[in-house]
């Protein structure tokens, strides 16, 4: 008998989406030039808002020669402010991950952007080294929107294209670090040419990134949607989504060693990128005697490489996963980041302007691609604690920038070129722990999957107790486990999957 004839009249019809979706209603394809709601709309809103936060956070470095003279800043003052700009995001990113898990990326992201926008506006009235430090510190909190961006993409796109989605959203957002090297000197010049003094022009210029950041928050709030099926608040009220416990979400993130390793390694790809954004314009200005505009253009080229380098890393992660699964993602991450470290060592050794620019450009491609490769792995570490794992990894990126600047670029202990070389050595060393990441259902860099027949269901169900499973709270994890079987690569049938979808795992 035909099902449609026997079904009740109020039987819910399947939800329809503009893009093909999997069992979680995550998009299985990525169409860059689409604005289809909710998947592609979330993509475009997220990267634009993250771009705005990057512009705000790094608006000061390209104008440092002017700001330095106006506020009588020392090299230590500038170094401390650079550290402040990225240190605020360390714990903010972990907090953002938690907020995404509990309240959804839409509210979490829009709220943080609005809370940090006043710090950007207030930069225009600072008058001392202390106020410069505070303005950069509080503005830097906005970089935690990276976590909501990656969480959002992982919630909207399935495993086969999640690396691409994360890479493009993160990479195009990071473009703000390069674009601001062009935007701020240009805005400054226009305002100065209109008739302002240079010490007034740089202050007025900060209203541009502040306004841009504010508008992006409203776009997220009014145009965005947390999940393919709706917003967290509505889904919690309807009972379609379990309202999780912070303690349990945090526990499963904190006890998963893979998240800690990725936090460390991300500190020496994205963290290095942040450190370079802070120092590169002044480095070329001081070492090679370039003018302010030229130094800004050179520095911009480093960040602007994100238009293809970080997305390229995400795409590479998805590409190698089609054949080699998770093991391919891990190998690609290790190789690309290690090569980036070697290029960083070389950058500090090159003594000519042309040579330094050439090495910097190639270095930027590898270090940024490693960022995209990292977030090709992150979505698979935990289903239940995805937000906190993303926050830990993102926080590790900011922490890496803080540590790097404290050791190598603060004060006069090292010359900038020596600091860059030593930073490269640190990249290589801190990338080695990737070799320790092992998924029992997929394997690691040197070992295949466990011989005990562990499946994706076994791995992800360990995050739920028997009582929680009896309540049906684990259903989304079951769907995710089914969809993540693609991480086996072409050996798709080499590990058994329970025919009834019931996991064999016992709870933690």
Structure in a nutshell:
Keywords: Membrane, Nitrate assimilation, Transmembrane, Transmembrane helix. The protein is built from 22 helices and two strands. The chain has 508 residues and is mainly alpha-helical.
Could you explain how this protein is built, in words?
With 508 residues, the protein is mainly α. A hairpin with a 3-residue loop joins strand 1 (438-439) and strand 2 (443-444). The protein contains 22 helices and 2 strands. Helix 2 runs antiparallel to helix 7 (145-156), helix 5 (105-122) packs antiparallel against helix 6 (129-140) and helix 16 (309-349) crosses helix 19 (416-431). The chain has a two-stranded antiparallel sheet. It is globular and about 70 Å long. 68% of the residues lie in helices and 1% in strands. It has one domain (39-224, 243-439): Growth Hormone, Chain: A (Up-down Bundle). It has helices at 3-6, 39-57, 64-71, 75-103, 105-122, 129-140, 145-156, 159-194, 198-205, 207-223, 232-238, 246-254, 257-266, 270-287, 292-304, 309-349, 353-377, 386-408, 416-431, 456-461, 466-470, 475-483, and strands spanning 438-439, 443-444. InterPro entries: MFS, MFS_dom, MFS_trans_sf, NO3_transporter. Residues 42-442 form the Major facilitator superfamily (MFS) profile domain. Belongs to the major facilitator superfamily. Nitrate/nitrite porter (TC 2.A.1.8) family. Residues 475-493 have a biased composition (Basic and acidic residues). It is a multi-pass membrane protein.
């Amino acid at each position: 008998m035909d099902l449609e004839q026997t079904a009740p009249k109020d039987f819910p019809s399947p939800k329809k989406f503009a893009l093909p979706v999997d069992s979680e209603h995550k998009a299985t394809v990525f169409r860059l030039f689409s604005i289809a709601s909710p998947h592609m709309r979330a993509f475009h809103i997220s990267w634009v808002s993250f771009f705005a936060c990057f512009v705000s956070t790094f608006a000061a470095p390209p104008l440092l020669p002017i700001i330095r003279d106006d506020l009588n800043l020392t090299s230590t003052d500038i170094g401390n402010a650079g550290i402040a700009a990225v240190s605020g995001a360390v714990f903010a990113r972990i907090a953002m991950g938690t907020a995404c898990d509990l309240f959804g990326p839409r509210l979490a992201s829009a709220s943080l952007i609005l809370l940090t926008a006043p710090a950007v506006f207030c930069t225009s009235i600072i008058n001392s080294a202390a106020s410069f430090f505070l303005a950069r510190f509080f503005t830097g909190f906005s970089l935690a929107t990276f976590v909501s961006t990656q969480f959002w993409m992982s919630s909207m796109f399935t495993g086969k294209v999640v690396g691409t989605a994360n890479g493009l959203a993160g990479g195009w957002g990071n473009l703000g670090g390069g674009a601001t090297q062009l935007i701020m000197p240009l805005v400054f010049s226009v305002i100065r040419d209109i008739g302002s003094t240079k010490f007034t022009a740089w202050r007025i210029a900060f209203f541009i990134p502040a306004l841009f950041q504010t508008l992006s928050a409203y776009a997220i709030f009014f145009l965005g949607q947390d999940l393919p099926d709706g917003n967290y608040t509505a889904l919690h009220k309807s009972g379609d989504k379990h309202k999780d416990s912070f303690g349990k979400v945090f526990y499963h993130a904190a006890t998963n060693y893979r998240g800690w390793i990725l936090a460390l390694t991300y500190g020496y790809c994205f963290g290095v990128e942040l450190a370079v954004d802070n120092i590169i314009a002044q480095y070329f200005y001081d070492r090679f005697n370039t003018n302010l505009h030229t130094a800004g253009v050179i520095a911009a080229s480093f960040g602007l490489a994100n238009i293809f380098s970080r997305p390229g890393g995400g795409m590479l992660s998805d590409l190698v996963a089609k054949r080699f699964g998770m093991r391919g993602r891990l190998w690609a991450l290790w190789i690309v980041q290690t090569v980036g470290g070697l290029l960083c060592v070389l950058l500090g050794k090159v003594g000519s302007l042309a040579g330094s620019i050439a090495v910097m450009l190639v270095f930027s491609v590898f270090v940024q691609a490693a960022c995209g490769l990292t977030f090709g792995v992150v979505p698979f570490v935990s289903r239940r604690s995805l937000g906190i794992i993303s926050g830990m990894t993102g926080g590790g990126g900011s922490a890496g920038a803080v540590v790097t600047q404290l050791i190598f670029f603060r004060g006069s202990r090292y010359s900038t070129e020596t600091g860059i070389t030593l930073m490269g050595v640190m990249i290589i060393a801190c990338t080695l722990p990737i070799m320790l990441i092992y998924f029992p259902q997929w394997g690691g860099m040197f070992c295949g999957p466990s011989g005990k027949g562990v499946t994706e269901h076994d791995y992800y169900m360990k995050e739920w107790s028997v009582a929680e499973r009896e309540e049906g709270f684990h259903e989304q994890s079951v769907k995710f486990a089914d969809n993540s079987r693609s991480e086996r690569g072409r050996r798709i049938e080499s590990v058994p999957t329970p025919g009834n979808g019931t996991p064999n795992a016992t709870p933690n």
